[in-house]
Amino acid sequence: AKRREKSKLKEEALGDQTEIGKVYGEVAINSAVLTNAEAIARANANVIRNIPPYNALATKPENVYTLESIIRSEEWDWQPDIDELIAAGRTSHASHAFQQKSDYPQFIRNRIYKLRPLSGEQLYRLAHTFSYINHLLNFKRMPVIAIKRLLKARTTLENDEDDKGTSHLMESSRIPGVTLAKFLKLFSDSKEDVPREKKDLLNSYILVLTLIADDFETDPLDIANDLKMTVNDLVSHYQELGCKSEKLKGIFKITLPVPLTFPTLQPKRMRKRT
Fold first, then answer.
1. What would you measure as the largest C-alpha separation in the chain, in angstroms?
2. pLDDT per position as a tens digit, 125-177
3. Which of 4, 23, 152, 173 is spaced 20 to 30 Å from 80 by Cα?
4. How many domains does the chain have?
5. Which InterPro entries match (predicted)?
6. pLDDT (tens digit, 9 = 90+) per residue, 225-270?
7. Distance between CA atoms of 23 and 210, rounded to whole angstroms?
8. Do 71 and 40 share a domain, yes or no?
9. Whole-number Å distance between alpha carbons of 250 and 68
């Protein structure tokens, strides 16, 4: 079991040529001597991906990352801003007024019009997608001290109980209790400040939802502004989700091709001696 655990290569090692020298020790079995190519192939096969749940066998982009794999069934009825979002998308006048609001991220404000032609389940699915993106961004902005206080009250949040000690923090976060409890489990660590891998996972959840909202063909500029990241950095993060990017007339377009393929560790090229 220990050997199997050691054989797992962290996601951070992908694309980092300095890590290739460590691969042999991490993936060698019974002290067998591996060639460089064999070691890298075995390492790639054992990568643990720090991303939302996915279906690697999906034949359509919408089946690779699904809304149901991100928003649990018990969360659907506890999103208080759904009616506000639907109302904002109902008319062009309402959408224009909504775009002036500063308490919603730019990604949502610039896409609220997408709700207008929809009805029934499609309408509610997109509204929930927008709502969840907003919750994730609000959680990302929470101070570490607030997250640690909420971690102590996680049982209260999970049981959806009224606790005066946490009610103010919950109200200021604008995140429903059942969803906030889930975020604390996924994206925080009570022993230290929010670790880098947790922050990366949180960003991955946000980016997957932007793909869903834009039918798996998105311009990363708005969400880059919301995340306070450069577009180039964000493009790299999308690529870790299996996305491809192209730049046309200065504008990036992110798509999710199938079958799903992820970045892999590549062998270092030997320099030719002169």
1. 74
2. 999 999 999 999 999 999 888 888 888 776 666 655 555 556 666 777 789 98
3. 152
4. 2
5. RNA_pol-assoc_fac_A49-like
6. 999 999 999 999 999 999 999 998 889 999 999 999 999 765 555 5
7. 34
8. no
9. 34
